[in-house]
Structures are given as C-alpha cells and as structure tokens.
Here is the input.
Amino acid sequence: MKFSEKLQKMRKDKGLSQEALSEMLDVSRQAISKWESGQSYPETDNLITISEIFGVTIDSLLKDGELQTDNRNIYAEPFWVSRGRIFEYKSKRIVFGMPLVHVNIGWGVKKARGVLAIGNIATGFFSIGLIAKGLLSIGLLSLGVIGVGCLSLALLLAVGAVSFGTFSLGAVAIGIITLGAVSIGMYSVGAVAVASHVAIGDHAHGHIAVGRVVDGAREFIDTSARLNLRAISGAEVRQAILEEFPGTWNGVVRWLVGFLGK
Here is the structure.
C-alpha cells in the first residue's frame, strides 16, 4: 500500500472526515485530499503527528507494505499531540456528538470544539479561549449565554471591560440591567448612567434620574460636593419607580434602591 492509500484507510477506520483530520493537523481539507490522492506529501512535522494520531510507525507510513503499530505511542487513544509550540488533547469519550474535552492551543488559528473546549478559538458548552463561544464562555472575546471577557456578548450575563447582555457588568456595560463606569440600559447604575427607565450615577440621564448631575422626567438630586447616593431616600425612589413603571420586577427595584439611603 502507498502512503496515500494508508492515510485514507486509517482515517476511515478511525471514523474521521477529511475536515476533522485537517483540524487535528492544522492544515486545509484540500491538503488532506491531495495527500490521499497522491498529489503531494505532508511535511515532516505533519508525518509525526499522523503517526501519533493513528499509533503507527513513521517508517511503515512511508514505505510500501503494511502498517506497523507503534507500541511506544501511548497517546494514540485518546488523541494527543504536543510538539513545538502546539499542544492538543482530544478525549475519546463523545458526548452530544463532540469530545467531552478538547484542548487545542498554540501559535496560529487553533480551534477547539467539545463539551469542555479550551483553545485559541473555543466552542463548547463550557469554553475558554482567546475567542470563546458557548453556554459559559471565558475569553478575550466571549460569546455565550454567560460570558466573561475583555469584550463579552451574552444572552443572560455579560462581564467584561466592554459587556453586552441582559445583565451587564463592565467598564462599559450595555444591556437591560447594567452596572459599570459607563452604563447604558433600561435600568442602569454607573459613574455615567443612561437609561430608558431608571438611571443612578454621578451623571444620570433617564426617565427617573438619580445622582449629582441629573436629567430626567423625575429627578432625585444629590447636592453634596461629591456623589453620596446614601443621602437620597431609597423609599422615595422606590415609590417613583412603582408609579412610573409598575411592572418592574421587585428584585430589580430592590437592587436599585440598595444603592440609596433609607
């Protein structure tokens, strides 16, 4: 058997698509196709990785004849690669059609996809990476239901330097209920707070505006030289919220007036 035939057989025996193998090797799917058709051969570092993935010797890959198992390759299952500045681990167990754990980090575009995914670009139920996407995501850029990152976009809770979410916490927070240095939302608390309903902050702009410098239909002004929200009556602000927005969730009301005095 030639190398091209061996590679195709090993890949199919392992149940891998050309695309899946290309991700493991960090090459294009077209490169795998060319190797399997005999149009080209992989470079040495890719040959080493192929031998590790399939648990065979490099000699038997290159020479005509049958494949020989490399008994020294203790990482043949689950898939594990560590070379130079690249590290990858993929667990054998499959859950919801993806590995239980997939770690893929190193130089370049390294994608990880698993229930727990850790990589330069990570996608999973729980993901950690430079770019992280998942149910719970932590990364430089995080996208998910719950996201934590420098830039965080989340359906439910976003925490980050810049955050977008239903509940947002960050230096710049944008969402429905927000807390940040610059806070923009429906209910906002921050040094600069802008809200459609209630804004609380040093500079507050909203229908109900609470702070030192305020702009709103109903204003509660702190006249002290420095912001002191405890000088403003929480009971009065609570009453105003219930009058202006009677459908406001009681938990949100308690959270807002918690920044104020009695």
In short: Residues 72-84 have pLDDT under 50 and may be disordered.
